[in-house]
Amino acid sequence: VQLVQSGAEVKKPGESLRISCKGSGYKFTSYWIGWVRQMPGKGLEWMGIIFPGDSDPKYSPSLQGQVTISADKSITTAYLQWGSLRASDTAMYYCVRRAVGWNGYYFDHWGQGTLVTVSS
Amino acid sequence: EIVLTQSPATLSLSPGERATLSCRASQSVTNSVAWYQQRPGQAPRLLIYETSNRATGIPARFSGSGSGTDFTLTISSLEPEDFAVYYCQLRDNWPMYTFGQGTKLEI
Q: Among A49, A100, B27, B46, which is least packed, fewest CB within 10 Å?
C-alpha cells in the first residue's frame, strides 16, 4: 500500500490550488481516503474524507466550504482543493487511508505529506 | 463533539524507562482508540488500533489499553527512536474524526 502525494507548493493569498494523493497497492474504491492538516508546530486536525467508490465527500464542520475534496477512481487519485488560499492555510497536509476494525476506525496508511505555504 | 485530552503535554524520560501516555475522552465512547507516532520531519504512522492491537511491524514494547473515557499507551522500555510525538484518535459521530493534541516524549 502506498499513498504518494504531490510536491510542495508556494502560493500567494487569493490563488487557487489542488494537491493530489495517488493510491496504489490496494483496491482504491474500497477504502475511504481522508485529509489531515498539521499547521506549523501544531497537532493533527482531520479535515474531511471521501469514498472513491461514489465520490461523496464529508467535511469537518470547521472547514466546510473552505476546501473541496474529490477523487478520480480511474487514476486512483484523491484531491484537496482551495478556491482562494489564505495565509492561515499554510500547513502540511497528509492524505490517509481509513481502515475499519470491529468497533473502530483508524488511519492505517499515510502519505508523505504536502507542504503548502501561502505568503505574499 | 468528543474532545480527546492527552497528558502530559511533554514527558521527559531516559532510554530504558517506562512511558505511560494518557488520552481522556470528554464523554464515554464505545468506539475504540488508535495511537500514532510522529517523529520529527516525518509523517505520522499507526502504532495501535482498536485500543490494544499493534499495527504491522510495531515492536512489542508498545501496548495500548483502556475503555470508556480513559485510554493509555505504554512503552515498556524506551529506545532512542521512541522519542517523538504521540497522538490518540477516535471516530466521533459520523463522519467526524478527532485527534488528541499530542504528547511529546523527550529525552
A: B27
